[in-house]
Structures
1.
Amino acid sequence: MEESNKMMVKNPNLFKEKVEESLRRHTKAINELTKNGMFFWDYGNAFMLEASRAGADILNEKGDFKYKSYVQDIMGPMFFDYGFGPFRWVCTSNDEKDLEISDNIAMNVLKEISKNAPKEILGQLEDNILWIKEAGNNKMVVGSQARILYADCEGRTKIAEAFNKAIKENLISAPIVLGRDHHDVSGTDSPYRETSNIYDGSMFTADMAIQNVIGDAARGATWVSIHNGGGVGWGEVINGGFGMLLDGSKDSDRRLKMMLNWDVNNGISRRSWARNKEAIFAIKREMKNNDKLKVTIPNFVDNEIIDEIYKS
């Protein structure tokens, strides 16, 4: 560590060479292990991208990565495409009793939703009910009295609405601030992680995060942010974020419904346009639940037909 810290300052070119050498060795080891049955996926923090830039044996004959990111294999089709993502809240009182009450509120909301939930999302709901039920026992809090769980648009909105009501009725002693992780349905454009299971080519654009932030600002977020970088590095990702203060007022109730609807469905729409079947299911369901929401559903066309038209 001491040697590398000095090298970064005194000889950055050599440091870069050493990093690239390490990436090539790492990739070689992964390739050997996968030959013997190990399953490998990239978390998405640019390992495969940087390994390819270092000349590692990480690409297949088509020029694509040999391995998928876990967003492609797991998070995208199971969570993001359905609108599930990391929904956060912070109890501004910093009182653990308020957090305990908020946990119970969130759990009860999800239990109620799960009673009539379609089979496609029932597993996600059940997992998060167990998670929030045990969160206090597992002593997850470090510092602020804050919590996070995975919820879709319906879950986030109903939980937020219940929080606001509890604050109004003094069941929770002080306002709650809502937020979310950037690693979510619609807040981030990152072709090597968050949007890596959007296969229509738009994963390489940065419009979803920008539209997300503008929409959140127009629909009542307390603050918004747009930033670059994160785990995958500068120039590889655009992140949009928000914070929303719930103070028990009618205005908070009005704003949370408008803003959370956009914050989630902006991303589901993009994913449905890429013809991700889970996202098409989710946006159709959302339009059924909200007659003010109108989203164009994509058409499926046989590639052979498109090829014939292109040739002609």
2.
Amino acid sequence: MSARTATAPDPEVSRARLDRLQALVKDELQRVNLVIVAEMQSPVELIPQLAQHLVAAGGKRIRPILTLISARLCGYSGDRHVNLAACVEFLHTATLMHDDVVDASELRRGRATANAVWGNKAPVLVGDFLFSRAFQVMVADGSLEVLRILSDAAAVIAEGEVMQLLTANDSTTTEDAYFAMIEAKTAKLFEASSRIGAVVADRPAADVEALAEYGKCIGIAFQLIDDALDYGAEQQALGKTVGDDFADGKVTLPVAIALAKGDAAERVFWQRVLETDDRRDGDFAEAMRLLKKHDAINATIRRAEVYGERARRALDRFPACPERAAMLELVDFCIERAY
């Protein structure tokens, strides 16, 4: 794959890649959706109503797809992976609900966030319900190893969210701190999703670790592109507000690169816009100018490509098959996506 730059990616190409991946696991993914709908039910009316609001918005379903396709790559022919894929999506959805409250986000997947519609209290509590439901599904599966993998992931994700809170509005945040945060906040669930696909297939430890490495690397690449898109995407394609990270004072990799390369006057600018409420008209445009000056968005994309190549290499031990081909194409989607 040729190196990509920060020129706008093609949403149609991104959609076609994702469509091909979803088509490969179409029947299983439909079963996952049925499990999600069934497990969201509650006599407390607001719970299914609010949870359905986010689930109905669609989403890429990459994490549950990873569980499904990893299991198929490993030759699994049972149905445990379907329930566990739903469990993965519950964990992800719960974190989205909490994220949107913490970030005061107004758009998610092109629709109003749950907190924008219902306020902050209900989404936090329904997010807790979804976490609890996920653990019920894990216990019903009956595997202590699966329970260990996903419960560890849930704990690490929570740590990552706290790390993000601590690094926000802090212009001294290092690249190492940023990568530690995204590995926990984002990549851990990608890793767990791929790992349990191999675990349910009872594959050797080397296969399990290879798929875990694949998931971790595309998770990091996915977040790096997410952070690049926050400064370089079209809002309609992205499905959420462009510039949210800037408005929240988050030190993502593009900003960390610009900070490290900037002169004293530029660092004063970043300190003001990141660490204080003194944001003025034209600040976002100035931030974009500095990111372009230091090639920060392209540098972030190039870093994502490094992790994409690591993900591809992790699949080398598996024979050529439609599932492996789709997982290789998923790497391209994560790096070249428009949303």
3.
Amino acid sequence: MPESSPIFFDSHMHTPLCKHAEGHPIEYMERGVEQGLAGIIMTCHSPMPNQFSHRVRMSPEQFNEYVAIVQEAADAAPDGFEVRLGMESDYFPGKEKWLSALHEKADFHYILGSVHWHIPEYLDAFWRGDPMAFRRQYFEHLADSAESGLFDSLAHPDLVKNASPDDWDFEKMRPFIARALDRIAKTGVAMELNTSGLNKAYPEMNPGPKMLTMMAERDIPVVIGSDSHTPLRVGDQFPRALENLQKAGFDTVSVFRERRRMDYPIKLVQESLTIPKSAF
């Protein structure tokens, strides 16, 4: 394979079925081709039972539609470009059986697990007015999600820093993050470097560089995702994300196929990308 051949995937993006994204999967596919990627993995927000967080996800009745529109993009893709079926599923205590059954309903390549602190159900259950306690609980749930065995990778793993960005203090949280990462490392579950964090209230990728270094020290594999909710963001900031991984101590970056992790040398991925560093 020539060094310039596309080999890397954007492993996190959405569809209008989640009610807060735009663009058919075919448009995401077309953008991925333009960005010099080998493929994309669609990971729209999973359905949940009993109207749980229903305003920001597909309904259970739309699941088959989701699988179908992803297949439409796969069928429309040019030779050599892959569109893989994935899903972003919420970890929430008590919903494990629902998710386990859901993940068997299609031939997924990748299941991305998320702890979404900002949905009403999570806030109702765990917010007690103490930001530090809330953050500690979040990281405990992050480790719980890895230990559940439900997920291949954990999405935007320090997302909670956006809960109260003005008083986010990484050093105060370091021991609690370390404890969570120790648990995650034992599971073999990967974690995501999510480039959309640059557009959030605390403007840095999720996770930030200090947590990324702690992940490298524990040999936790990393997958890169743009978390695109519009086709124009496919591949957003990937050159910068790869540099962040190198600075943190990583040599490889990962992609999933048929729920199995594949690792690529970062230097090879950098050589394969045609996305200009100044593109974003």
